[in-house]
Design a protein that fits this description.
heterodimer; A: about 70 residues; mainly alpha; 2 helices; about 65% helix; flat; B: about 550 residues; six-stranded antiparallel sheet
């Protein structure tokens, strides 16, 4: 499961964009009401599950290629 | 070595120390405060005085104070106590590991050399202990009450005097009106109103948190403080001095002719002879050692470092002293009443609500409810096991309803929780220690978490996960020079705070306490420091 979590570089990239006022809209809360929000959250969960094997694979490759 | 003389020396710069010093100054004695006083407000002062939402949309230099210059390095490090501090507050950790070493794999406390001690980054929670809690902690309740009142008047406390938790948490008269609830807090409080009877039957009560955050202006001794501006920037700045900091008390003391302070100074050891006590301190700027001498020494450097000083001064290397530190977890929840709904920007960043859960034995658990707004989303994305873009989307969907509940548990002594001082070489030593609760204690904590989660469900806050940081994360420490030791134990204290086998040394922080209720301890630290200082000064000329 650890391999699914964002690594430091990925989090850093998100953080730097977040603290740039040009991208503020991409970090605003999404508030379409509870039902639509729940559907959207379910979609995020589904997409995460589908993407998980690829993400684990990439993390393993990155780990293998990184200096010990 | 150089020598200075005073009536009273106070060691430390945090809430206990400044209030002990304030009481001694008030009694007319000559007081010297010895403290490291590291201060760096440059980043905080660079924050424009505007609301969080406005800064996010307009300030091109916001990365400096929201992220800091070393975020990439910090993200690569393992999470440790203090990681939650925002960049303008990170300075409170500076040099603490070097000068206050502690070697333990099971206990990770937060220590500081900052001006104002841990009070420099304090969230403002001000709870009074109830009489049964004071009795178990070894603090005489009747003697403490007037000091509670004095401190409350000086620091400024806001809260609700008549809500369901007030009887458990707020036994003082001088109270300003409570802070406004934010959108998230308001819906949780409203749900509590609807489910009140069912929650009361389980022992749960919810109320407005008493906090040292002003809702009305407060002016004292030339220091002007202002109501919280509701900018949601309280994790980054001290706009209008709305949240009390010990540095404010220090700034008023500086105007008193009978008060001096030695800054950049780390107390090394003390030596008592012929009714006087000599304190040796290290000048952190020059590396030189100097001595200050007085009739009384009041140790208020925090439970860990007052113990360090006593153990070193008395040569008690390898001697185990007991340790108290509240167990603490964060419960990440989603408030279903706010899920998918917009929230107002006007808010403060401190806890919105406080819950108490009374157990069968009379103990109370304490839950502080925080809305997740101004700490930025990248911290949430980091905790989501998915691609960061998907994590960001989930964080944006959850943001207005995301509620962190900080859960504190009461804490008592047990054999697996201790500290000792170990000599490294002839010049240096380090604290070592262990924090291993018994199986019964661990079971009680697990049961407490389950009971609190059930109450959260009833409130509409759906628990997602329980984050259990390393022991020490509660930042509540006590018991290291306990008042329940035999009177010939050199690492024990008497009920008035006097160190055993001493005539001149008193301990005014939480080191003597024999119990830690689940509540915030800072208000009691300040009030008790005044009580101990009064006892320490009682027989001195001029007092």
């Amino acid at each position: 499961v650890k391999l699914l979590y964002p690594n430091a570089d990925e989090v850093y990239e998100i953080a730097v964009r977040e603290a740039d006022p040009r991208f503020v809209a991409a970090y605003e809360p999404i508030t379409p009401g509870p039902i639509v929000a729940l559907l959207l959250l379910a979609c995020v969960g589904l997409a995460s599950a589908i993407y998980a094997p690829l993400r684990i694979g990439r993390s393993l490759v990155r780990r293998k290629n990184s200096p010990a | 070595l150089s020598e200075l003389a005073a009536d009273v020396i106070v060691v430390g710069g945090g809430p206990s120390a400044v209030h002990a010093a304030a009481k001694a100054v008030q009694l007319g004695l000559g007081v010297v405060l010895v403290h490291p006083a590291i201060e760096d407000t440059s980043l905080e002062e660079s924050v424009p005085p505007k609301p969080f939402s406005e800064l996010r949309r307009s300030d091109e230099s916001q990365a400096r104070y929201f992220l800091g210059d070393d975020l990439r390095e910090r993200l690569r490090e393992p999470v440790k106590v203090g990681s939650q501090l925002t960049p303008p507050r990170q300075y409170v950790l500076r040099d603490a590991d070097r000068h206050l070493p502690i070697d333990s794999t099971s206990f990770r406390p937060l220590q500081t050399l900052a001006l104002g001690g841990l009070g420099a980054a304090w969230g403002g929670g001000t709870h009074t202990y109830e009489d049964f809690e004071l009795a178990e902690a070894g603090i005489p309740a009747p003697a403490l009450q007037r000091h509670y009142e004095d401190v409350a008047r000086e620091i400024g406390i806001s809260g609700a005097k008549k809500d369901d938790t007030a009887a458990h948490l707020l036994a003082v008269e001088a109270v300003q009106p409570p802070l406004e609830l934010d959108s998230n807090g308001a819906t949780i409080f409203s749900a509590y109103g609807r489910k009140r009877e069912a929650l009361h039957a389980r022992g749960f009560r919810l109320g407005r948190p008493p906090v040292a955050i002003l809702t009305e202006a407060l002016s004292a001794d030339g220091l002007e403080r202002h109501p919280n501006p509701m900018f949601d920037m309280d994790f980054y700045t001290n706009y209008g001095r709305s949240i009390y900091r010990p540095a404010y008390t220090l700034s008023t003391l500086e105007r008193c002719g009978n008060f001096r302070q030695i800054k950049n100074a780390l107390a090394v050891n003390f030596d008592e002879s012929q009714g006087r006590v000599d304190l040796t301190y290290l000048d952190l700027a020059t590396g030189r050692r100097s001595v200050v001498s007085a009739s009384r020494l009041i140790l208020a450097a925090g439970a860990l470092n007052s113990a360090r000083l006593v153990l070193r001064s008395r040569g008690l290397y390898g001697v185990r002293v007991p340790l108290l530190s509240n167990a603490y977890q964060y419960i990440a929840t989603v408030n279903r009443h706010m899920f998918g709904r917009p929230a107002a920007d006007r808010r403060h960043s401190s806890s919105q609500l406080v819950g108490t859960l009374t157990l069968e034995n009379g103990d109370r658990l304490l839950a502080a409810f925080f809305s997740y707004r101004s700490l930025l989303l990248y911290r949430l994305v980091k905790e989501m096991p998915t691609h960061p873009r998907l994590g960001l989307l989930a964080a944006r969907l959850l943001q207005t309803s995301f509620t962190i509940v900080g859960l504190h548990h009461p804490e008592r002594f047990s054999a697996g929780k201790w500290l000792a001082l170990r000599r490294v070489d002839s010049e240096t030593d380090t604290l070592t220690g262990q924090y291993e609760p018994t199986a019964d204690e661990q079971r009680a904590v697990a049961e407490n978490i389950s009971r609190m989660k059930a109450c959260l469900w009833t409130l509409g806050c759906m628990p997602l996960s329980v984050i259990d940081p390393a022991p020490g994360a509660s930042i509540h420490y006590a018991g290291t020079l306990a008042a329940n030791q035999p009177s010939d134990n050199p690492a024990g204290t008497s009920p008035d705070g006097r160190l055993n086998l001493s005539r001149s040394v008193y301990v005014a922080d939480s080191s003597p306490w024999t119990f830690l209720p689940a509540k915030g301890l800072t208000l009691t630290l300040m009030a008790n420091a005044r009580r101990v200082a009064e006892a320490a000064c009682a027989q001195l000329n001029g007092a």
